[in-house]
Structure formats: C-alpha cells, structure tokens
Amino acid sequence: MILIDAKGGKQRKVEVPAVFVADELELGGKRNAIFRAVFRELSNRRAGTASTLRRDEVSGGGRKPWKQKGTGRARQGSTRSPQWTHGGVVFGPKPRSYVISLNKKERRSAMLAALSDRFAGGFITVLDPEGFALAKTREMAVLLFGNDAKRPRSLRTLVVYAAGERDGIGAQIERISRNLSDVRVTHTGALDVKDVLGHARVVLTSQALEELTATFQEVR
Q1: Higher pLDDT, 212 or 25
Q2: Is 48 left (phi over 0), alpha (psi -120 to 50) or beta?
Q3: Cα-based distances in Å from 6 to 9, 39, 133, 169, 206
C-alpha cells in the first residue's frame, strides 16, 4: 500500500492493517454477503412511487357500450376494461417500499470483505493530509492522477475522508473535486460496499484509514 503526501508525491510503502488482510479463499466465502449488501443498497435507493390505475379507479365507463346480444360484436360491460383505450391497467405497479433489511453484522462483514479485496489488489492509496493546502481543481487532478496529459479517463476514483474531518479537509476536498467527473468524494460514515467495488481506485486519508481499522477490528 502506497502512502502519498499532499502534493501527490509517493512517500513510501506501508503495511496493510492486519484486519484487512485476507486470502482469496476467505474472500470467496464472503461473495454472498457482498452480493446481498450491494443488492440492499441499490434496492433501498428506489423510490417505489410508480403507480397505475386499475379499472375500478379509472373515471367513466359506467354505461354498457352496447347491448349484450344482437350486434354481432363481442360483449362488453365497460369502456374502462383493460382491453379498451384509456381502460384500467392489469397488474400494474402500485406504490410500495423496496427497503430490504440486513443485520448489522452481515453489513459490516460485507464491507470488510470489499475493503480487503481492494487492499489485496493494490487499489487503495493512503493520503497523508498534513500540509494539505490545495485550492484548485487542477491541483487535485494532479494529486490524484499525476500529469494531466497521461490521465487515464477510465480510472474512476473514490476519495474517502474521516467523518470527523467533514468541517476541515473533507469540505476542502469536496469543493476542489466537484468538477472532476471521474472522482467521487465521501466520508467513512457514508461509505458503502457499492462505492468501494464500483471504483477502480480508493484514496483514504490517514485518519479515515484509522477510523476504518478501529471499526472493523471487532468484526473478526
């Protein structure tokens, strides 16, 4: 794992915290938990407001269109039957909740497995925020990607700062990263499995790494 300074220079390699060290077999056993966690996160984002009208909710249609027999046409009881234009909808959606519950232990286990997978693949970088004084978007882009001319457009990056840094370096990072389309900024309190696995690289501040390490010490 690489530790970089606030100017983007590579400082040194540091050891991955023991809590995030896992072998491939152990991570393979957590795939089901990761799937359920991501499925829950996506489902819980759904508004569930889609709604259609059944035949008894559509206005009109109280009069029989034509008499039952003698016309040569199929019998019809209402112009609001589903086969009619402007009729009711059969088995259409109604407002509902898509919220899925998942116990705290399984959620934390899935997050730990996702972070361990990112650490194992070398996709996590730690940022030492000491002396962080960047004020421009271009400077943040150079910090994350180096030379702009060689910047890989597919390298989607997630920057995570500690929840306690929201009023300090966190707000500063969010402001100067706002116009970087391939960069998302969040804090440890809002981090989810989908974001960890959905980005090619994760950049953690030193304090964010400490918070995550302390949080997951008891999971194992």
Answers
A1: 212
A2: left
A3: 8, 36, 8, 11, 11
